[in-house]
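Students often ask why we bother encoding 3D structure as a string. The short answer is that it lets us treat folding as translation between two languages. Here is a chain of 63 residues written in the first language.
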Amino acid sequence: MIESVKYTLESKVDMYEREIDRIENRLQDLDTETMGLRVDREELIKQVEEHKRALLNLCSKED
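And here it is in the second language, the structure alphabet:
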């Protein structure tokens, strides 16, 4: 009886540890993806600002 309970508990511990590892890996992947998205966002903001400046310059030359 004790061996059966011991085996069950060890199996649960192993399963939970694997799940923790899976979650930690996923969190790392999400952190990497988030950083990439932040970089992409900043680049797009810069491009929008540059295009707005160019548009303002063109509009001021038309006047």
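Translate back mentally: The chain has one domain: 1-63. Keep this in mind for the problem set.
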